[in-house]
Design goal:
Radius of gyration: 15 Å
Number of strands: 11
Order of helices and strands: EEEEEEEEEEE
Number of helices: 0
Helix content: under 10%
Amino acid sequence: MRLDNYTRGMDDSHQAPDAGVGHRPGEDATSPGDVTEVLDLFDDEGNPIGTGQPGSDEGGPSYKLIVRTGQQAGRSWRVTPGDTRIGRHPYNDIALDHITVSRSHCLLTLDATGLTLTDLGSTNGTYVNGRLAESTTILPGDELMIGMFRLLLARAR
């Protein structure tokens, strides 16, 4: 499954912040200096990582967010139970320092029911798999766009 085209399936009223700006349709909207990391979402036996039901592991599921493109490509953060705040300001649990990210951009909540993403009224919106999201459940393999950052949600090992 390819996760690099944010505008697929979106109408013009909900385009990603960088969609269509100086790029041809279907062309990736990253800067020339950006690096894209290819991640393996399968274990050694070829089974998808993180497709089990939330809470199916001993002690509950464990997730991490991995930056795919942008200034911090390759960096990752573990998502812990409870709330994880994401934004530009350094007081956030995950700080993404770029003007396209709001100071308090979004919130991840990990509990027994799963992992929920909630946009906190950000200026540029929060996108999940290319679709504007206000509040939604996210799963391993989902790609988030927060400002100019593209992050992949993966099951932590």
